[in-house]
């Protein structure tokens, strides 16, 4: 029976919970390490190592480097492992100050200067983006069924209809106003970026009436390109479907309401963009490796 382990770096454990919400692996894989549910001391030899969370601390760095030596295949799962995710919050001055104020008292691990994606430290064989990836996507990355395909974009899975004659002049803002069923959220003035976000999640957010914040990352059309191209594609969609000024879109994309999106994809943000920059560039992630 194949053996797999889940190494949890700095994240929120949501990825682990999503994996546990699937059951198909139980009879076919043996889970040998996952601190959330198994009290094993260390990562043993495994066929597949799933790594969740970003490399935020010296402890993360040490654990990651050690664990990959015992794995035949390494999969970065979740936005934190791929782009830093919520651990990017630690790059903010006020969060860092809060952490450091407690660090000595509580003997916490040392923060690295900047959160790093897993592939900036070790070689990654596959990427499974999402915050968290759905149980179905976890099963797809483990079993690689030949007929499993993700849609190119979230729009293709959303089911809402884009209308030509419903052009908002301004954004409504997140979580404000009524949401009409069946009609594209952009038509209704919401900042939905599903058109340039890779599919595969089956659009749970937009179906429920919440704009897509892009947790699955850029679609194949943009994943190998510069961050600016992804941002430009979002602008193009809004220019085609709305009369919202480009500056308003730009400001909203960088607003606290979309902080989650920006933190998830800090390595796609322009170099000058605070808090975490992106100045180190990012590893090339060939689309063939990304589910
Ligand atoms: S990707 Fe999302 S669900 Fe997974 S650890 Fe990070 S914050 Fe949690
Ligand atoms: S832009 Fe958003 S709401 Fe509109 S079709 Fe695409 S995913 Fe659905
Ligand atoms: S709809 Fe967008 S934000 Fe929601 S799960 Fe899918 S990619 Fe993530």
Could you explain the architecture of this structure?
The chain is α/β, with parallel strands linked by helices and 291 residues long. It folds into two domains: 2-147, 3-Layer(aba) Sandwich (Rossmann fold); 155-268, no CATH class. The chain contains eleven helices and seven strands. It has helices at 14-20, 58-68, 78-83, 93-106, 135-143, 155-158, 204-208, 220-223, 227-241, 246-253, 259-264; strands spanning 2-8, 29-33, 46-52, 55-57, 71-77, 111-116, 126-128. The chain has a five-stranded parallel beta sheet with strand order 2-1-3-5-7, with helices on both faces. The longest helix is centred in the C-terminal third of the chain and has 15 residues, at 227-241. It is globular, with a radius of gyration of 19 Å. Mean pLDDT is 87; it is low at 269-280. The structure holds iron/sulfur cluster (3 copies). One iron/sulfur cluster binds at residues 154-155, 158, 160, 162, 184-186, 192, 194-195, 203, 206, 212.
């Amino acid at each position: 029976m194949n053996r797999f382990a889940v190494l949890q770096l700095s994240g929120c454990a949501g990825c682990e919970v999503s994996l546990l919400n699937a059951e198909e692996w139980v009879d076919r894989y043996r889970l040998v390490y996952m601190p959330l549910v198994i009290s094993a001391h260390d990562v043993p030899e495994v066929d597949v190592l799933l790594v969740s969370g970003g490399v935020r601390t010296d402890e993360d760095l040490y654990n990651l480097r050690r664990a990959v030596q015992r794995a035949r295949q390494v999969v970065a799962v979740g936005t934190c492992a791929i782009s830093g995710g919520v651990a990017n919050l630690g790059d903010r001055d006020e969060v860092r100050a809060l952490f450091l104020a407690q660090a000595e008292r509580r003997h916490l691990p040392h923060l690295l200067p900047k959160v790093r994606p897993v592939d900036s430290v070790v070689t990654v064989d596959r990427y499974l983006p999402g915050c968290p990836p759905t149980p179905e996507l976890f099963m797809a990355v483990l079993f690689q069924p030949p007929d499993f395909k993700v849609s190119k974009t979230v729009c293709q899975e959303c089911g809402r209809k884009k209308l030509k004659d419903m052009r908002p002049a301004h954004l409504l803002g997140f979580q404000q106003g009524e949401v009409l069923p069946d009609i594209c959220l952009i038509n209704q003035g919401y900042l939905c970026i599903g058109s340039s976000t890779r599919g595969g999640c089956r659009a749970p957010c937009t179906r429920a009436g919440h704009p897509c914040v892009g947790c699955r990352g850029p679609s194949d059309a943009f994943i190998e390109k510069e961050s600016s191209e992804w941002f430009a594609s979002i602008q193009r969609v809004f220019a085609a479907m709305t009369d919202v000024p480009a500056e308003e879109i730009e400001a909203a994309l960088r607003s606290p309401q979309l902080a989650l999106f920006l933190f998830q994809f800090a390595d796609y943000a322009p170099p000058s963009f605070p808090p975490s920059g992106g100045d180190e560039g990012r590893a090339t992630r060939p689309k063939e490796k990304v589910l």
